[in-house]
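=== RUN LOG ===
request id: a7f3
mode: sequence -> structure
chains: 1
length: 220
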Amino acid sequence: MRYYPVYLDIKNRNCLVVGGGSVGTRKVLMLIACGANVTVVSPVATEELRKLFNNGTVELKERPFEVSDLDDRFLVIGATDDQNVNRGIYAEAERRKLLCNIADRPDQCHFILPSVVNRGDLIIAISTSGKSPAFAKKLRKQIEREFGDEYAEFLNLMGAIRKKLLSEHHEPEAHKHLFEQLIEGGLVQMIKDGETAGVNSLLHEILGAGFDLESLTGTP
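=== RESULT ===
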C-alpha cells in the first residue's frame, strides 16, 4: 500500500469514535486536541472518557453502535474488540463515502494514524504504512529527543514575523531569503539557550527596527 500523506483540518468537524476502551480513549484525545467535535459510542467507557463527557468536551452514548450513528459525520474511528462490529462500521462508512479507520486493521482503513511528534505548530508524522507500529514508536522517541520545545517557540516567532511582514505589504516570495537567514543564523539554538539578547540582535540585523521578541510575541 502506498499512502498519500496529508494533514486533515478537522476543527469543528463531527467525528465519531466507536469503542470506549484505552485505544478508543487515545483516539478521542487526539481528535479533541485537533479541535474536532467528538461523539463516542460504547457500552463501556474509561474513567477518562466519562470525565470528558461530564465537562462537556465529548458526547458519550453508552450503548452498542447503531448505523444511524454515522449520520452527519466527517470521519469515524472503530476501536472495539468485536471484529464483526468493526467490519460493519467500515462497510457502512464505505457505502456512505466517509473517512474510516479501524484500529489495527489497515485493510479496513481509508487512512492510517501515524505516530506523531508535536511541538506546537511543528507536527512530525512517522508511518511505516502499518508494517511496524513498534518501529514507528521507536523513531518517534528518537525524534522527540532531537526536537524540543524550542521549536514551538521558534515557529511562534516565525509566524509573528511573517504576519508583520505581510501587514507591511511585502510579497510572500520576498520573505524567503529573510527566513533562510534567520534559520542559518542559529535562531533555534539561541531560543533553546535562552539568549534573548542574541535573538533580538539577529532580528534587528536581518529584519531591521521594530522586530524584537517582546513586540512580536509578548516575551520580554
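=== NOTES ===
The beta strands are 14-18, 37-41, 59-61, 75-78, 99-102, 115-119, 122-126.
Residues 150-167 form the longest helix (18 residues).
=== END ===
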